[in-house]
Amino acid sequence: MNKHFFGDTAVLLGRSLRHITRSPDTIITTAVMPIAMMLMFVYVFGGAINTGSDSSYVNYMLPGILLITIASGIAYTAYRLFMDMQGGIFERFQSMPTARSSVLWAHVLTSLVANLISLVVVVLVALLMGFRSSAGVLEWLAVAGILILFTLALTWIAVIPGLSAKSVDGASAFSYPLIFLPFLSSAFVPTDTMPGPVRLFAENQPATSIVNTIRDLFTQQPVGTDIWIALAWCVGILIVAYLFAMNTYRRKIS
């Protein structure tokens, strides 16, 4: 690793964060859609959905909304990368004595910061809507850790179209299936209410294990094997996406 990696990454991270502070509408836009979904599901559909739980529906569906928030936010990572590629920023940095991978890591860490802010906003709105949790500090830290891992995994996925897309729309379009994924999970209704093939998919995709783990942590219920499945999904996706992203980056700057 280049000895200047951490210093270069910190400088480039500051550059990216300044761009966000100058246009906070990206964070606001990221949070608006999940909040609108939360309002619709709780106040329009919530009364008609039987989750088999005594707690309020906002408690049940918040974990899924948090995943949708992250999936919405990473589209901006791909967009920012695409604009930097088109603007020749990468070539400019490569002509300077900077660590090559620091450019990508700055974008990834910016995505992490922006998404964490959006997640906090969504949780605050959920509290206003009646969300309550008996979780202690350790449970909240565990939830934060899982969400951070999930954000990093999806962000490295976002790096790939951000580097290789041919248009702005192409750079961000990949996020739509990821936003839709929690709808085919236990995020909004129990999976046992779904027809056979849909239930089979729902019970064996990453969103379900992550949602179930976060929901159990919020209610201080035993998490069982779900937490290990969730961690395996997050770490596995993170490693594969990182390797593909770095390979794409090397081909682009070679």
UniProtKB/TrEMBL annotation:
Domain of life, source organism: Bacteria
Record's keyword annotation contains Cell membrane: yes
Subcellular location: Cell membrane; Membrane
GO molecular function: ABC-type transporter activity
GO cellular component annotations of the record: ATP-binding cassette (ABC) transporter complex
Matches recorded under Pfam families: ABC2_membrane
InterPro entries, per the entry: ABC2_TM, ABC2_TM_bact-type, ABC_2_transport, Nod_factor_ABC_transporter
Topology of this chain in the membrane: Multi-pass membrane protein
Biological process per Gene Ontology, one example term: response to antibiotic
Main localization category: membrane
Every ABC transmembrane type-2 domain range: 25-252
Chain segments annotated as transmembrane: 27-49, 61-82, 103-128, 140-159, 171-189, 227-245
Keywords: Antibiotic resistance, Cell membrane, Membrane, Transmembrane, Transmembrane helix, Transport
Family in the record: Belongs to the ABC-2 integral membrane protein family.
Protein name: Transport permease protein
Source species: Nonomuraea diastatica
